[in-house]
């Protein structure tokens, strides 16, 4: 099953999500996570902003007072009263600043958790086939990144209006009030920063596009040397010398790209800095001129001078944020895009186990694949029947099982599971009473008991009964939860080294996975080759246990080992996405050459007369 | 530079010195310049004072207009510096990042590559590596920066305080007296929030794990069929909020302390300003100086109450990293582990003599007095139940672990005395979890084969049965594999197996090991792999491990491992006659293929 046909990626050009929709989603998250705080923080933000403005105003009063006091015949009270007044915005500024920052951290941490929760819930509602998109992984990573972007977009975006804008407006008013020509100061501070920001964004984006593949390569060589996945082979092959050489080569390339971008970005900033300095020069000139002409008081002169640094600083910060709006919007779209992925959907529907499973001319093609993986399959599985599905790698066995359970929906044809059409039924109805042991079973880093009862959503109804049920399921596959050597805390033993528990061997994990499948109440159970890592003695035992337990229940077994298919009532033989034969094992040996050939090729290994 | 990883222990002083060892030039820029620049706020206060006084004098007509020129020039110079040198420094930093990546990183990679293999498999040291390795080159810089930012704050504060002291000496003392508790609060707050982060990291990691389960693509079947997302999501929500609450409580307490400090500081600042008034009135303090100092005091106070806490937190974090680094350099390693394999080795006999072994940090004896002999040119199979130690035998034989007791002798010479280069030259091993690398197909086969010419690689690909695959790939054997490249192709499980086999064929080592790389294969392909492997290995020594006992018939000798010992050995027929574990295992598999009904 070669997938090189997918090399030309099936990327549909990504639709742009309108700005307002992204913002709305961000607001939604924030309002759900922090409904009251979100409003309060805006008020605090405005007050915080004004406290800066008011301090400038009162500083001027103080400086004027000092000048007045110094003047011949002046009174120290002229300075002391404004100084006392100045305390108010100074202390207010201090408190509001702390409060604002603290509230921000709450808004972000609560918002982050809420956004993750939304993404998780969405993940459960996704149509499982969406996960098979070749770019799903990429899409998912971008969504995760976009999570913080969308929060930034909304919260920083609002701050522009509730913090920076009031400050700039206040300062404009103040500067204009001191001397109308000082309004130019705002422009001097404003224009260079704006242009710098615009130019910079373009460079950064372009560089990222260019550097990303080189960076991935460099990470690959790094990983070949350091990661556990490759370490053994790198060591034994003596490949270090080669890898480090290639690592250094990509380093050189990456450095070149990085340096070029960095130089360009910083040169833009540098030229903008010169403009900013020019702006400063202009303002100082205006200040001196106004003072010389007697247009402003000494106090106003000193206060304006003292406030300029903050004005320029805040202006730069504000434009940094304005610049980040574009970036956050761009990346925040990925989060919204994820939330808008197609869902599984369907309606609630009663099921009737007695009606078995019926496939009528069912086909299914993976997204981005050229050929169907399951191609025009019809099959009826009676209630209570055990059916084995066999075939070579890539014959479509696992896909067929996913169709049979309703996990995937047919592109054409119809699948009716226990009387419910999988195209129209919701997942709760489809999977109630269905269990499975899957090829890619999970090793949950949870307790032994949770590793079993997770198949009933961590059943917590009645602990005592659940202990018994979990222990029984484990015991039926040969895991003794009471064996304190292997499980020091019995069923509550944590199965994870990372969380201070124990680790199991591959075979034991597999048994736990089987116990998990058996634990779940079921009328229909799927066993998708669950014994690959188990030794032969254990394997036979498990198959036999399985047959005992699933008596009277519908069971579907996928297996490579044709010998084990014999325990099934019927065997379905798959080849190239089609079912080429269905029948009892004995029957198929007679009627299906392909099955007979496969069986023979395996059984001859075990032919005891064959004395090689 | 090279001895940056040679210290036995890394402590507080190394926060600074690591960067100096890595690059004296960049360290000098990073450490000297910021300290000088930290004096500029003081310069700008003095210039502002002079500017205001001059401007007022000019306005009053007591000095010519030219008097403002000099202070304005200084003021502008400081401003210009603020904007431009910062940027030039960015450029220097970009160069530094590049420089460290190509000097420091390879030194670290070499060190990792030399580690004893046991550290890679051990969970604790593997975690240590994941903390130390990825961020190493940036950490060296961050360590230095963490101290520098505190130091430049201190210098800039000292500059302003000295200026104040020179003008009104007791005002300076007052500020210092007020600054001490502020700094203390800041330090405490930083330590608290770092401690809170550590405290919650366990909860956060668990929450992150739940998130991973809920979103893992591979978990889709269990997740959907078992319908556990809501339950896990609820748990995720609870845990995340539990962690958040702990952290938030600390943040809040810090906020209270810090702002109490800030308010206290502001009050002190206002008091100082008020108490400087008489000096301004009696003319001993210029108006300009008074105004400029007032501004300076306000800035200083807020800097003292805000900045220090995050700086202290940062230093605590970096010191923690140095502790990890100390552990990392203490890990055992062997110098020649990166050596190239020696070619042309051969042997007549490998003998395991009463070998016992347990994995470091565990007590269970995986091998417990195992003895057997491997002879040149013959084929061997190892069988046994799960956990019997089959894979462990290959790990000892390839020299990955050396802490066994008993002896492993190659033609009488103990394996532990072999150099790494000889060990590598001795065996070619296909592991269960062989590497799938994002190289071209050709490079995937030729990886590590530094001396193999193209014809050998092409022949190996052909022999391993990759001919069809190569014909199908758009760029033939030079097609890049995996998705890390635009247009990279992916292979099926079976095709990858063949790549792994081809890789071992290119390797001229005298012993070939096949450690059950066939679990994912269907029976037909599997039999083909084993048959082909034996066929192309005629005349060579091979050793393979398989769960499917039918294939073991290909071996001349089968070793049955049980409880860490070789309990049975011999040909298939002989072992069947012995009627021991092998026979039992074989029959339990064979009965699936006998015509009698088993149930």
Description:
In chain A, strand 7, helix 14 and strand 8 form a beta-alpha-beta unit. Chain A is of the alpha/beta class. In chain A, helix 3 packs antiparallel against helix 4. The two termini of chain A are 34 Å apart. The longest helix of chain A has 53 residues. Chain A contains 17 helices and ten strands. In chain A, the strands form two sheets. Chain A has a six-stranded mixed sheet, with helices on both faces. Chain A has a four-stranded antiparallel sheet with strand order 2-1-4-5, with helices on one face. Chain B has 599 residues and is an alpha/beta fold. In chain B, helix 3 packs antiparallel against helix 11 and helix 8 packs antiparallel against helix 10. Chain B is elongated, with a radius of gyration of 35 Å. The model of chain B has no long low-confidence stretch (mean pLDDT 86).
Multimeric status of the protein = heterodimer
Task: Enumerate the spans of chain B where pLDDT stays under 50 for 5 or more consecutive residues.
Answer: none
Strand content of chain B: 5-15%
Which class of secondary structure composition applies to the elements of chain A? alpha/beta
SSE order of chain B, one letter for each helix or strand: HHHHHHHHHHHEEEHEEHEHHHHEHEEEHH
Most extensive interface: pair and counts?
Answer: A-B, 166 and 180 residues
The number of helical elements of chain A comes to 17
Mean pLDDT of chain B: 86
Side-by-side strand order of the widest sheet of chain A:
6-7-8-3-9-10
Largest sheet of chain A: 6 strands, mixed
Average pLDDT of chain A, to the nearest integer?
Answer: 85
